[in-house]
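sry for the spam today, last one i promise. C-alpha cells for design, 422 residues
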C-alpha cells in the first residue's frame, strides 16, 4: 500500500517535472539587452500568445502570464533573414508593461509587449525573456504584406473544457487545421476558449495545450460568455479575457477596452465584436461597426462574434435585433459565430430574408473545437445545419474576387464549402 502510494508520488513528481521542463537556453546565455551576463534557461512551459496590433503590416503584440515572483520581461526580436542568435547585436529588445492581477489561484503577473514600426511582409524571430532569467521557446511571426494578396485564415470556436484531456481536443483541432493550411495567417477564435474564465487553471490548460503553435501563430480572440462572467454573473471589465490577450483598444465601441477591435488583412476588413454586453453597449458597438466599415476600402467585410445571431441552439434575438440591421447596412459578407456547438451555414440574408448568392450576409457557426456538442436545431435561416459529433474548424480563403469558406472535421474531412464571388 505504502509502496503503491510512493509510486504514485514518484509518477506525480515526474509529471510536474515534465510540465515545468526547464532546458538549457538554445541560443546563448548572455542577455543582448544590456550586455549583462545573466545565465538564461529556456522554459518550455512558458505560454506566449501573439496577435496583431492595429495594423498587421507593422504592429505585433504579445502577452504572457507568470507567477508573482517575475516582475517584468521583454521580447527580443529580429528579422528571420540573417538571424543567427539572440546574442547578436542585431536583436531589438522591447520591454513589457507588467502588472499584477488577482486570480482564483492567487496573484499572477500579466506581461504585455506591443511592437510597432515593423517591416511589412517580413518574417521575424522572437523570444520572451523574463527577469528571472527564463526565456520562452523561439517563436516566429510574419507581418502582413503591404500590397494585398490572397490568404487563408482559420476559425475555431468553443474549445472550453474542464480538464487537460478536454483541452487536448482544442490542441488536436488546431494542429489539424494548421496541417491542412500550413500557410494560414491567423486564427480567429470565436469565444468560449475556456469553460470558466475566472479559473486561472483553465486558461493555463488552454494556452499550455498549444505552446508551440500559439507562440508562432497569431490568435485573434473573441469574448464569449464563459470568458466574460464570473460566479456572480458579472465582470464589467472582461478582466479574465483582457488579462490574457494584448489587443488594440477601440474606445468608441462602448465595450470594455481590448474586447472590440478590427484590422485590414489583404483584401478583407475584419471586425471582432463583444456580445457579452448590455443593450446600451450593444447599440454603441453597432454604431462603431458602421463607422469602422465605412472607413475601409477593402473588398470583403467580415465580422466575428460569439453568440450567433443566425445560429441554431440558442436564439440570441436581442443581439440580432440590434446588430443585423447594421450588418445589412454595412454590407457585411460573412459573420463567423460560436456558442451553439453545432455547424450552421445560413442562406445569404438581408433583412432576415433569404437573398440571391453573392448578396446579403452569410452566417457560419463553426460547431466546436472542444468536447461539448449539441444536437441540431432547425431554424428558418439555415441552408446547412450539421452535427457530425466531432470537432471542426473553418478555413476562409480571401481572394480579390472570391471568398471561399470550407468547414472540416478534425480528421480534415471536408464537411461543407461555399464560394462567394463579388
Ligand atoms: Fe457560449
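last one done:
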Amino acid at each position: 500500500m505504502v509502496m503503491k502510494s510512493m509510486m504514485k508520488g514518484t509518477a506525480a513528481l515526474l509529471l510536474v517535472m515534465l510540465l515545468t521542463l526547464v532546458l538549457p537556453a538554445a541560443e546563448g546565455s548572455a542577455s543582448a539587452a544590456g550586455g549583462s551576463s545573466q545565465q538564461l534557461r529556456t522554459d518550455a512551459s512558458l505560454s506566449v500568445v501573439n496577435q496583431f496590433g492595429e495594423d498587421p503590416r507593422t504592429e505585433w503584440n504579445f502577452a504572457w502570464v507568470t507567477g508573482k515572483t517575475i516582475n517584468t520581461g521583454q521580447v527580443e526580436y529580429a528579422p528571420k533573414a540573417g538571424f543567427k542568435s539572440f546574442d547578436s547585436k542585431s536583436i531589438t529588445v522591447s520591454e513589457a508593461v507588467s502588472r499584477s492581477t488577482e486570480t482564483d489561484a492567487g496573484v499572477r503577473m500579466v506581461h504585455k509587449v506591443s511592437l510597432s514600426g515593423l517591416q511589412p511582409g517580413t518574417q521575424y524571430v522572437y523570444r520572451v525573456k523574463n527577469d528571472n532569467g527564463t526565456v520562452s521557446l523561439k517563436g516566429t511571426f510574419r507581418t502582413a504584406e503591404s500590397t494585398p494578396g490572397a490568404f487563408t485564415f482559420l476559425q475555431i470556436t468553443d474549445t472550453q473544457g474542464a480538464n487537460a484531456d478536454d483541452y487536448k481536443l482544442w490542441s488536436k483541432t488546431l494542429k489539424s487545421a494548421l496541417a491542412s493550411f500550413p500557410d494560414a495567417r491567423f486564427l480567429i477564435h470565436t469565444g468560449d476558449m475556456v469553460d470558466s474564465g475566472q479559473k486561472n487553471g483553465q486558461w493555463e490548460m488552454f494556452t499550455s495545450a498549444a505552446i508551440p503553435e500559439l507562440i508562432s501563430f497569431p490568435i485573434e480572440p473573441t469574448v464569449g460568455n464563459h470568458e466574460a462572467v464570473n460566479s456572480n454573473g458579472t465582470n464589467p471589465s472582461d478582466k479574465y479575457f483582457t488579462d490574457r490577450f494584448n489587443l488594440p483598444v477601440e474606445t468608441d465601441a462602448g465595450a470594455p477596452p481590448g474586447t472590440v477591435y478590427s484590422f485590414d488583412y489583404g483584401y478583407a476588413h475584419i471586425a471582432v465584436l463583444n456580445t457579452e454586453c448590455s443593450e446600451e453597449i450593444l447599440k454603441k458597438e453597432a454604431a462603431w461597426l458602421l463607422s469602422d466599415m465605412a472607413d475601409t476600402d477593402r473588398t470583403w467585410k467580415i465580422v466575428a462574434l460569439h453568440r450567433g445571431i443566425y445560429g441554431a441552439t440558442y436564439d440570441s434575438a436581442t443581439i440580432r435585433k440590434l446588430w443585423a440591421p447594421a450588418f445589412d447596412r454595412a454590407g457585411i459578407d460573412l459573420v463567423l459565430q460560436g456558442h451553439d456547438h453545432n455547424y450552421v451555414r445560413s442562406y445569404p440574408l438581408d433583412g432576415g430574408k433569404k437573398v440571391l448568392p453573392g448578396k446579403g450576409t452569410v452566417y457560419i457557426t463553426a460547431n466546436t473545437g472542444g468536447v461539448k456538442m449539441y444536437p441540431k436545431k432547425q431554424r428558418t435561416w439555415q441552408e446547412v445545419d450539421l452535427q457530425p459529433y466531432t470537432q471542426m474548424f473553418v478555413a476562409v480563403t480571401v481572394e480579390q474576387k472570391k471568398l471561399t469558406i470550407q468547414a472540416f472535421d478534425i480528421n480534415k474531412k471536408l464537411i461543407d464549402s461555399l464560394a462567394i464571388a463579388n
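The mean pLDDT is 91. ok im logging off now
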